[in-house]
């Protein structure tokens, strides 16, 4: 799992919770819960290393010292779009910080366009059989006051295209895919051919989503979740649970993997609410 580990301040309907976050954490925990042996790479000030390992001992952490941590504030309110602020950013993850070895699957979850140095991609391609990418961070523009907004010009188009070509599986929300479709003129149905993907997971939050593959598409519906549960990280958990199900059950139907991922994500939200 690659990407900034963030120190998250999570607020939903006035209730505040602080935790380690970021795709490297949320996806890693979901993959481990599914039964995979997970290595996660994180950049974090030294005074947080022990707390991280104690909070999530089920993950094998490769933690590198950084002068500062990435910090996000997420405010969720029923019926409204989540509001985000990024108040600090760790330095980019670089290729020298990749663990040695070969992996069945590597996931990239950059929190912003400069989160992972692009020199990581060739090394990752050599070491991993399968690469997944969450595009959310690549489409984030962080303003001077820390406000985080989805933006088509968050990173140069050629760099974004390189990221998309590097992946075998891509996850994007419906809003994020609308931005990519406008930028590249490629529909979700044509994405697999354009970037030689095994699949594109296009999520629609509580409405479920659609998986597009080279041959067909699969719709999934969300499982019932606790209404007042924190949803930050739910997309990360869904992707990881889906990929884990595929790795552990390679002959299973993709529809089964999608519903298993939806069920596990709903369970995560419910446990947070508890």
Secondary structure layout:
Layout (H helix, E strand, L loop, with lengths): L5 E7 L2 E7 L1 H11 L5 E6 L4 H7 L4 E6 L4 E7 L6 E6 L17 E3 L11 H8 L3 E4 L5 E3 L5 E3 L6 H10 L2 E5 H11 L6 H5 L3 E5 L5 E4 L4 E4 L13 H15 L5 H20 L1
Helix pairs in contact: 1-7, 7-8
Which descriptors apply to this entry?
single chain; 274 residues; alpha/beta; UDP-N-acetylmuramoyl-L-alanine:D-glutamate ligase; 6-stranded mixed beta sheet; 4-stranded mixed beta sheet
How would you describe this protein?
- The structure is a single chain.
- By secondary structure, the protein is of the alpha/beta class.
- It has a single domain, classed as Ribokinase (UDP-N-acetylmuramoyl-L-alanine:D-glutamate ligase), CATH 3.40.1190.20.
- The chain contains eight helices and 14 strands.
- The strands form four sheets. A six-stranded mixed beta sheet has the order 7-8-11-12-13-14, sandwiched between helices. A four-stranded mixed beta sheet has the order 2-1-5-6.
- α1 runs parallel beside α7 and α7 packs across α8.
- The protein is globular and about 50 Å long.
- The relative contact order is 0.14.
In short:
Helices cover 32% and strands 26% of the residues. By secondary structure, it is an alpha/beta fold.
Terminal residue distance: 27 Å
Number of strands: 14
Q: How are strands sequenced across the largest beta sheet? A: 7-8-11-12-13-14
The averaged pLDDT comes out at 90
- Shape, per Cα inertia axes: globular
Order of helices and strands: EEHEHEEEEHEEEHEHHEEEHH
Strand fraction equals: 25-35%
């Amino acid at each position: 799992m690659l990407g900034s580990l963030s120190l998250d301040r999570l607020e939903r309907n006035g209730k505040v919770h602080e935790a380690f976050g970021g795709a490297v954490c949320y996806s890693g925990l979901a993959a481990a819960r599914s039964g995979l042996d997970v290595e996660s790479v994180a950049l974090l000030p030294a005074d947080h290393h022990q707390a991280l390992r104690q909070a999530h001992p089920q993950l094998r952490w490769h933690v590198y010292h950084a002068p500062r941590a990435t910090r996000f504030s997420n405010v969720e309110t029923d019926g409204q779009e989540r509001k985000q602020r990024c108040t600090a950013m760790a330095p980019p993850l670089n290729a020298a910080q990749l663990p040695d070895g070969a992996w069945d699957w590597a996931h990239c979850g950059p929190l912003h366009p400069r989160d992972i140095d692009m020199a990581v991609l060739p090394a990752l391609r050599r070491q991993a059989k399968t690469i997944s990418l969450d595009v959310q961070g690549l489409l984030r523009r962080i303003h001077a006051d820390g406000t985080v907004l989805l933006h088509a010009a968050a990173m140069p188009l050629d760099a974004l295209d390189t990221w998309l070509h590097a992946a075998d599986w891509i996850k994007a929300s419906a809003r994020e895919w609308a931005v990519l479709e406008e930028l590249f003129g490629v529909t979700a149905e044509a994405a697999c051919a354009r970037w030689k993907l095994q699949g594109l997971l296009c999520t629609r939050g509580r409405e479920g989503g659609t998986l597009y593959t080279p041959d067909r598409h699969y719709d999934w519906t969300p499982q019932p979740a606790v209404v007042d549960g924190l949803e930050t990280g739910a997309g990360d958990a869904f992707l990881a649970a889906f990929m884990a199900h595929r790795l552990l059950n390679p002959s299973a139907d993709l529809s089964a993997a999608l519903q298993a991922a939806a069920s596990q994500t709903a369970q995560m939200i419910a446990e947070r609410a508890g």
